[in-house]
């Protein structure tokens, strides 16, 4: 009787372990992974992949332009122009990340820590205080807004 009870407990425990391992990733994991995938595509100068999960009505504030950038297309045009340049991003890291989830909206804030290399091989640090807003639509996260402020 003891062996049967022990065997039953083991079967149930193994079933629970399988359930825990197959749990879907959290919204936090998903938006951080998506952001890092965008960075990886940027480092390869693969604009199409970097823009894959950017919403058509995407908006952005950054230190390079004095106005809000409206729409995926303007962001794609600027990304393609930058990808054609001689410089490149060689490292990108996220520090102090925090994801706040409100239903189908996720707000990711973090400190960006990276490095760029210019055409002459000179490496410069890159820093920013960053916010990205994602919306989950039809089971997919879409980047709808970002704000990249210089960290001086």
The first-level CATH class is given as Alpha Beta
| CATH arch. level architecture | Roll
Using the alpha-carbon principal axes, give the shape: globular
Low-confidence stretches: 1-22
Task: Give Rg in angstroms.
Answer: 21 Å
> How would you state the average pLDDT, rounded?
87
The structure class reads: alpha+beta
Order of helices and strands: HHHEEHEEEE
CATH topology assignment: Nuclear Transport Factor 2, Chain: A
Helix content: 25-40%
Question: What is the beta-strand fraction?
Answer: 35-45%
End-to-end distance, in Å? 70 Å
User: Largest sheet, order of strands side by side?
Assistant: 2-1-6-5-4-3
Query: How would a crystallographer describe the biggest sheet?
Result: 6 strands, mixed
Report the strand count: 6
Query: How many DSSP H or I helices?
Result: 4
